[in-house]
Amino acid sequence: MAHLVIVGGGASGLAAAYQARKLAPDLQITLLEAGSQLGGKIKTVAEDGFLLEGGPDAVVRYKPWALELMRELGLEDQIVGTLPAKPSALIHQGRKAQPIPAGLQMVVPGDLGALAQSPLLSPLGKARAALDLLIPKGPEGDEAFGAFIERRLGRQVWERLVAPLCGGIYGGDPYELSTLAAFPQLKSLELQHGSLIRGAMQQRKERGSREAGQLFASLSGGLGAMVEALSARLTDVHVRLGTAVTGLERSNGWTAHTPEGSLSADALVLATPADVTGKLLEPLHPEAASALQQIPYGNSATVSFAFAKEQLPPRVGHGILMAARQGFSARGFTWTDQKWQGRAPEGFGLVRAYFSGIGADESQLIQLALHDLARLWGQHPQPLRTWVFHWQQGLPRYTVGHQERVTKALEAEQLPGLYLTGATYQGVGLPEVIRMGRTTAQRALQHLATPNSTPATT
Ligand SMILES: Cc1cc2nc3c(=O)[nH]c(=O)nc-3n(C[C@H](O)[C@H](O)[C@H](O)COP(=O)(O)OP(=O)(O)OC[C@H]3O[C@@H](n4cnc5c(N)ncnc54)[C@H](O)[C@@H]3O)c2cc1C
């Protein structure tokens, strides 16, 4: 019987295993995961009535692949939206926090009226942003994301609105991100509508707004419920936790080496972060390995605090983002209990700080987060509980040239029976990662179905 081995049990590896099992009920499948749990960056904790996320906390609704999977897994009635809030969030500019304008689509204004009234921008900044409706389209090729937004909407929109919003997604310096790789939808808006604002206004009609809770979704039990449901569907998949793949060999098919022994496979899906995949491919495809090793990652961390409600000052919307270089250590704070229903017991509040690119240990992160909160609130808060999640390899940074690096990396798939998937390639969000995992499994199954792919000798 043919054997498919999937390396990495994050969202992409799990989606690949689920899809392979669904389409090939008799296939021998093994999922190898280095860590002690499945889910990768998805980490939901439920303790003493608190429900918190250490990694991702939402999926965007307009990219349907995560929600489709949740429905397929029977989780439809657990899908929840964010609580309505107007404004949905604030941006702190150093001296003052201002509401983000209503109607944002991704990171771009989609409501001209709200933009005109926004205290976030000066009259000149607003006038410059409105020029986006008139100025001609730019070139079709890639450009730094900061340069793209400045060209369309002006420097103020970049500095005061888009950069803080992106810092909360990708971390690091968002200026150097690749527009085509990190925000392809925004480039399409320019190309299709000749204007980001015009395109975003159209999208807002179709997708709804953040303020009404229509853009983001999760599960009432947190995103970990999706990991549990996926695991439950992996019938007869041999899941091996605590099993890191340390080397690969091409033999009659593939051999994956682990400290616990070696496995033969007819097809291999690598759903591991870029550095791991690069290391594994070094002896087999040095060019692909080198491209993978050039994809930078930013470390990230989240710190969640439980507070007694009476300790908390009034908090606006779902959270607050910090503009860069304004003396804050955190990129932003989520008021978790105000963003989602049922995340903290009665009488308690839940607050999550997001850090990116910061070299600090757990106790330093806690102190930095509390320091920022003290500055925001004018009082030193006393948390009752604290949870820290540190991701050394948080998110791949899709900087200019990312698409070329990915094309080079994917040349490794010319090795028969080898497939690469996950956040490294064509999208870091859970919807994209799930879509890639599922389509990658389909490609692996096609390979196994071709007559000359010989079964491995186990
Ligand atoms: C703090 C944070 C917040 C985020 N927020 C959001 C959000 O709100 N919404 C959203 O859509 N996305 C969000 N993301 C992004 C999203 O969570 C990730 O891009 C996605 O989960 C990555 O899935 P993956 O399967 O590609 O990789 P991973 O989740 O990194 O999984 C890779 C797996 O491979 C395993 N592995 C590594 N080496 C080996 C080896 N040698 N052998 C075997 N296994 C190995 C790892 O242990 C891991 O389990 C966030 C990410 C972070 C870090």
In CATH terms, the superfamily of the largest domain is FAD/NAD(P)-binding domain
Strand content: 15-25%
Structural class: alpha/beta
Helix content: 25-40%
CATH class of the largest domain: Alpha Beta
Number of domains: 3
Gap between N and C termini: 10 Å
DSSP summary: helix tally: 16
Please give the radius of gyration in angstroms: 23 Å
How many strands in all?
20
CATH architecture of the largest domain: 3-Layer(bba) Sandwich
Shape: globular
CATH topology of the largest domain: FAD/NAD(P)-binding domain
Q: Uncertain spans, ≥5 residues at pLDDT below 50? A: none
Q: Which hetero compounds are present in the coordinates?
A: flavin-adenine dinucleotide
